[in-house]
């Protein structure tokens, strides 16, 4: 504020000096000029000069007043400073008390927070301990279950091995049972054959063995079965060749009959023709085939030894009649037949035969013929006859 008053005072002094005192001084100097024609201006100029001097005096008085006011303001400032200094200790005391209270409150809050932190740390430590205990328990449980699983796997593998071994034993026993059943059937079959052969004369044993192959009741059953399965007959060359190959394989698998040799005490008194028994087994094996007519021919004896029951629904003849009158039933193709049944020829032959049926009609048939290459029936001819 003092600086503002001082600045205004200097400005006022400059304005009075320039606008008021300088013109008056100039007018006074002009009026006092000796060359001036009018001397009355001197009085006016002097009056104005004195007025200016009075103004200057008044201005100086104002300046003194301002200085005294400045001193008074300075004194008031000092008094105020002293008062402020005297009041400051009380304010400092109040602020110290408030600071101590705030400090105590902060200490209490710090203590509470410390207790809360300690409680949280304790809970955290307990939780960590529980976690460690649970992990240990889980690890023990996992190890125990892994051991149990490993033991179960070992037991399972042992059980599987035992089951495999038992399966093999069962399969072996089953195979043995089947072999024993086959042997039992063969012996029963051969025993029946021997009982039949015991009633037959010596020179005609082979022929009679062939003729007594099938009982009359069994013939009728097989004829009915052949008639029912007529829809599965061989109709093409490929089917006939396949059936011929299968029949030859069946004949080659049959081994010689040696169960009732002369060394066996039970059958020592029987005179046994093993060839007749072997033929009986071959005929029984081929008799079950009802998809086509199957013929067994002996080039050595130049006669048909066997024909299955399929001949009856085809031509109407019984197997015995067909065997007995075979060459008389061939109306055409006999020369081709004789060429095909040569014992030295082991290739498959195809011939055409025109045969006479029981009703008196002639029927054309295809016949696939081939000699048995190995086995006890080597050289015998098997033929597949189909229309």
Write the layout of secondary structure elements.
Blueprint: H1 2-31, H2 40-197, H3 205-211, H4 216-228, H5 237-253, H6 274-287, E1 293-298, E2 303-307, H7 311-315, H8 319-324, H9 326-329, E3 330-332, H10 334-340, E4 349-356, E5 362-371, E6 381-386
Antiparallel strand pairs: 1-2, 1-6, 3-4, 4-5, 5-6
What does this structure look like?
This protein has a domain at 215-386: PAS domain (Beta-Lactamase, 2-Layer Sandwich). Residues 201-219, 226-231 and 258-272 have low confidence and may be disordered. With 387 residues, the protein is α+β, with helices and mostly antiparallel strands. The longest helix is centred in the N-terminal third of the chain and has 158 residues, at 40-197. It is rod-shaped and about 205 Å long. It has a 6-stranded antiparallel beta sheet with strand order 2-1-6-5-4-3. It has 10 helices and 6 strands. Strand 1 and strand 2 form a beta hairpin. The chain has helices spanning 2-31, 40-197, 205-211, 216-228, 237-253, 274-287, 311-315, 319-324, 326-329, 334-340; strands at 293-298, 303-307, 330-332, 349-356, 362-371, 381-386.
Please provide a brief summary of the model:
By secondary structure, the chain is an alpha+beta fold. It has a domain of 172 residues: 2-Layer Sandwich (Beta-Lactamase), CATH 3.30.450.20. Helices cover 67% and strands 10% of the residues.
Instruction: Give start-end ranges of low-pLDDT stretches.
Output: 201-219, 226-231, 258-272
Oligomer: single chain
Envelope shape: rod-shaped
Derived from helix and strand composition plus strand pairing, the structural class reads: alpha+beta
Query: Please, how many helices?
Result: 10
For the record, the CATH architecture of the domain at 215-386 stands as 2-Layer Sandwich
- The count of strands amounts to 6
Rg, alpha carbons: 75 Å
N-end to C-end Cα span: 150 Å
Helix content: 55-70%
Order of helices and strands: HHHHHHEEHHHEHEEE
CATH superfamily of the domain at 215-386: PAS domain
Biggest sheet: strands, sense, closure?
Answer: 6 strands, antiparallel
Mean pLDDT: 76
- Enumerate the strands of the largest sheet in spatial order, edge to edge or round the barrel: 2-1-6-5-4-3
